[in-house]
Amino acid sequence: xxxxxxxxxxxxxxxxxxxxxxxxxxxxxxxxxxxxxxxxxxxxxxxxxxxxxxxxxxxxxxxxxxxxxxxxxxxxxxxxxxxxxxxxxxxxxxxxxxxxxxxxxxxxxxxxxxxxxxxxxxxxxxxxxxxxxxxxxxxxxxxxxxxxxxxxxxxxxxxxxxxxxxxxxxxxxxxxxxxxxxxxxxxxxxxxxxxxxxxxxxxxxxxxxxxxxxxxxxxxxxxxxxxxxxxxxxxxxxxxxxxxxxxxxxxxxxxxxxxxxxxxxxxxxxxxxxxxxxxxxxxxxxxxxxxxxxxxxxxxxxxxxxxxxxxxxxxxxxxxxxxxxxxxxxxxxxxxxxxxxxxxxxxxxxxxxxxxxxxxxxxxxxxxxxxxxxxxxxxxxxxxxxxxxxxxxxxxxxxxxxxxxxxxxxxxxxxxxxxxxxxxxxxxxxxxxxxxxxxxxxxxxxxxxxxxxxxxxxxxxxxxxxxxxxxxxxxxxxxxxxxxxxxxxxxxxxxxxxxxxxx
Length: 503
Prior knowledge:
Elements: H1 2-14, H2 57-69, H3 71-92, E1 97-107, E2 116-118, E3 124-126, E4 132-144, H4 150-216, H5 222-256, H6 265-268, H7 289-292, H8 294-315, E5 320-331, E6 341-350, H9 358-424, H10 430-464, E7 473-474, E8 493-494
Antiparallel strand pairs: 1-4, 2-3, 4-5, 5-6, 7-8
Helix pairs in contact: 2-4, 3-4, 4-5, 4-8, 4-10, 8-9, 9-10
């Protein structure tokens, strides 16, 4: 009866938890404004698979491939699995630890002669001049109760850390998707610039031939021929630099998708246009980033973990209760091993009396860590808002430049056609033609760059808005055992409650 009272009291006290309870911050407390400071389209678009908006099957395939084979993602999955095991280990501290032991001993009478001895339970054993057997079985248990909630707070902290690791994985996933799309846009843009340079080089070869004919005919001086040769050489010199940049972008795509740098060169060799998504996308309101951005949600979970650690530190200021118990039996044969059983139960309290202020200093340390986590959370939110607004402005300006360069290209093309016709007819000099050809190449490259910048800004905006993952899920760690040739990836588990409220 007395033992039952001890267990009941321990269980009741274990429900107490010292330290602050975590409360999610409101958008206003985080400094989130009501609206953006730049024009933003209303509504929140579904951007879970934003790469499909570009209608480019090659881009979509590369993004999907990177999600399954990227080495940074594989490391993130491993960290997520480590966080899960830490959670399981902290949960196990809430339960008793039970261990068992068994033993056998053989005693021989080396001098001979009958002897007898008495076992602890009073049984007299006659050796009969031979040996004796002794069998023992024991069972022990210990339970650290955690009457002031140190164990519960530890579980709370590790659970938040596990959820933060899941959101960290999602953040790495978004970063990898962004890098794949960005380098793909760069590669397609460089293909377009190479095409521009080669087209201009072909025209300049024709101009060089015309200038040579006119010099031979005595219609112009050799100055025209030399200017044409110089212009052609300058244009040709840009091609190796563009090829080097193109190779770097394609090599980067290979590594991002978990392959050798040159693995994608055959697949990307065919020239394709720069991918462009629809010009407008629903931005929503600033408060949406608290739900859609995985880096923001990871920072929020880090704050929850730091808050729980304050309770862990505070609980060490109070008594700790430990309960231990054991059961033992000894016998001379297996058949009567249960005849005599002894056991004991012990419950003890320990309390720190003097430690030089170390434990209270540990509490203040955890409080400072929580303050730092709160500041980091606010900073992450503000950086997310900055990313969105910068991407909106970058997209708007790139689209405006695209419209202007389209007009400039049309005018430069007409001017160059007219200039070539006039030069052949002797109505203008080569310097004027050279200027018109230079303006045409500049307009072509300007339009190409503006389109590439618009595509890159669209990618940046999609990622800044938290696109690329299902924001209604908390990524979970997968099992380690997988089929050969596959890469571990978290399996999202849908939850109906926000991560900040999951316990």
